[in-house]
Write a structure and sequence with these properties.
- There is one protein chain.
- The chain is mainly α.
- The chain is 80% helix and 0% strand.
- The chain has helices at 2-26, 34-58, 63-76, 79-82, 97-131, 134-156, 164-167, 169-179, 183-216.
- The chain crosses the membrane at residues 7-27, 33-52, 64-84, 104-124, 136-154, 185-207.
- It comes from Dyadobacter linearis.
- This is DUF1361 domain-containing protein.
Length: 218
């Protein structure tokens, strides 16, 4: 029920973001439905992580299956922080009302998408901690952060997407090798990873404090 309640809250936030987009459409202004698609993609790692967290509660002895699920999660996880980069599309006209609406709308989409990613990270990390040693789970967490940043780089700069893993795996490998020595790719990956890590530590600290507080006062 805890997980379902979280999903419901995130769904409400997603619908609120879409509502901002509907207001944009109401003004008969050009719209970009890729935002809605990207928001949808941010739900995939969330659902995958929810499944991993739920199934490991009942079957904690499933390391191979969890690794396969984790690979799928990692393939789509960069879609969550990806929407932060959509803020680069903002055009500034201080006398234009839609400038401020677009600012709020893009931030809302990025915020909800990021929430989806952070919650999915918490659930998949909790699943790792159940199945693997705690140290192993934490190492997997740390490694996943810059990898997510690199995934965002591939999407924004190299114009790749998660489905290319299936449709064009060769192109993924080509871009991977071309980007290894790319300074922008390195900085981009580390900074997105650092951002996710800091936000996740805040989320983790709040949740752990609540759990310990509840246990102490039971």
């Amino acid at each position: 029920m805890e997980g379902l309640f979280s999903l419901l809250l995130l769904l409400v936030l997603s619908l609120a973001a879409v509502f901002f987009h509907l207001i944009r459409i109401f003004f008969n202004a050009p719209v970009d439905f890729s935002m809605d698609w990207n928001l949808f993609l941010s739900w995939i790692p969330l659902i995958v992580a929810f499944f991993a967290d739920s199934i490991t509660k009942r079957f904690p002895d499933m390391p191979v299956s969890l690794l396969l699920i984790s690979i799928m999660w990692l393939a789509f996880f960069p879609n969550a922080p990806y929407m932060i980069t959509d803020l680069a599309h903002l055009s500034v006209d201080y006398q234009r009302d839609l400038t401020w609406h677009d600012t709020i709308m893009l931030f809302f989409y990025a915020e909800v998408s990021l929430f989806n990613g952070l919650v999915s990270l918490y659930w998949i990390h909790r699943a790792w901690r159940r199945v693997f040693y705690r140290r192993t789970a934490n190492i997997m967490l740390v490694i996943s952060l810059p990898l997510a940043g690199f995934g965002v780089y591939l999407g924004r700069v190299r114009r790749m997407n998660s489905w290319d893993i299936i449709h064009e795996p060769g192109l993924i490998l080509t871009n991977l090798f071309d980007s290894i020595m790319d300074r922008t790719a390195l900085v981009f990956s580390l900074e997105i990873g650092l951002l996710l890590g800091i936000l996740y530590l805040v989320l983790w600290g709040i949740i752990r404090f609540r759990i310990r507080y509840n246990k102490k006062h039971q």
